[in-house]
User: What shape does this take?
Amino acid sequence: MTAIYKICPAPLWREAEATGVFHGAGIDRQDGYIHFSTAAQVAETAALHFAGVEGLLLVAVDADRLGDALRYEASRDNDLFPHLFAPLALDAVIWVKPLPLGPGGRHQFPDLAA
Assistant: This one.
């Protein structure tokens, strides 16, 4: 299993849980795909795009369950980022954990191996 990660505001994720599918945040819908990060990328993603934001969740997704709709494309520093060109069915979700702010406004990540 290969895990990829989505940082999501809690209210938006709760909507997805109620409907059984996640259609993405505003930026995802604007870009036409759901942005994900690998374990090596997610902390920098949080620092660049979610600095100081409270009320976030970290969603771990089994990339192997996403099929051909998942593509790795060059983005920040030409690093390959996972992009999902379909809604996310919640049966591919491994876990959802809080992403609290720590000292200095940086998010405190759970153990990504768990």
Notes: The chain has a mean pLDDT of 94. The first strand starts at residue 3 and ends at 9.
